[in-house]
């Protein structure tokens, strides 16, 4: 059985319609959809925390969702973004898990090991969703999340019409089939004294602080690609003599400009220069290029994994 949990509070919105596409996708299987808008589940309270002693005394049917997930072959959560976070139904659900698991570690482990996927509408503050959803899977598993930017599909997010766009519907099918285009990219972490070379990139129309990086061409080495991309994006000339060390590669997934799902492996390389060249933002999507104090970069960088990487790079 496939379980779909639609956390949206409205009927006939994007989450509801995405749930319909999921049902269509798994047409040969039994699909059970739980719609939060149809039920009044309670948040924790009006009790004496009985869940820590014996059984949660609230009897509103929410445990049935947990029970179905544990028995499912795969579960898909469909969540709306309200003010940059999952909507409150998701937090309510998470909170009520206490009453279901009731300290039963085996049951919790079974729940966490169920294959899960997450579809988020719409598209701001990915890290808040990542942080909230990672508790639905095992510690060593990255939650697989598809973030929809309605405007990218020429839809107003409030209209609930995202699935009327055939590219958007196709993405749901690709995501459920784990059909990704695979790409590789080299990243240059360039230090000058206690400064790091940064870029401000336009990502989904938002300025995003990052590091120089780009596609590894066929037959090109990671080192050559990092050196070339650094020059192409920032005009900074680095050479093999500036190369210090490499860090572990990491993976990101996103929707490209052709509305296809992409899984990209990024190989970060560390360089150290003893003078700063003439910097220039040379590509259209790059808005600024600057050496920033490392502390300032750590405060301002959007991506947690890039922050962790910089900390690691300093120690090399
Ligand atoms: C109270 C509220 C806050 C929202 N905040 C955001 C937001 O911060 N970022 C975003 O991308 N979309 C935001 N949206 C848009 C919703 O995510 C979008 O309308 C989504 O389709 C809602 O799910 P539904 O269509 O299933 O109701 C917000 C919508 C509401 C109602």
Describe this structure in words.
Strands 7, 8, 9, 10, 11, 12, 13 and 14 form an 8-stranded mixed beta sheet that branches. With 316 residues, the protein is α/β, with parallel strands linked by helices. Helix 1 (14-25) packs across helix 6 and helix 2 (62-71) packs across helix 3. It has helices at 14-25, 62-71, 88-101, 105-113, 126-133, 166-176, 222-234, 294-300, 304-314; strands at residues 2-6, 31-35, 74-82, 85-86, 116-121, 145-148, 181-192, 195-203, 206-210, 213-215, 243-246, 250-255, 261-272, 286-293. It is elongated and about 65 Å long. The chain has 2 domains: 2-176, 3-Layer(aba) Sandwich (Rossmann fold), CATH 3.40.50.360; 181-314, Nucleoside Triphosphate Pyrophosphohydrolase, CATH 3.90.79. Residues 8, 10, 13-16, 80-84, 121-124, 157-158, 160 line the site of flavin mononucleotide.
The mean pLDDT is 93
Shape: elongated
CATH topology call of the largest domain: Rossmann fold
Tell me which CATH architecture of the largest domain applies here: 3-Layer(aba) Sandwich
User: What's the CATH C level of the largest domain?
Assistant: Alpha Beta
**Class from secondary-structure proportions:** alpha/beta
For this entry, give a set of tags.
316 residues, Nucleoside Triphosphate Pyrophosphohydrolase, 2 domains, six-stranded mixed β-sheet, alpha/beta, 30% helix, eight-stranded mixed β-sheet, Rossmann fold, binds flavin mononucleotide, single chain
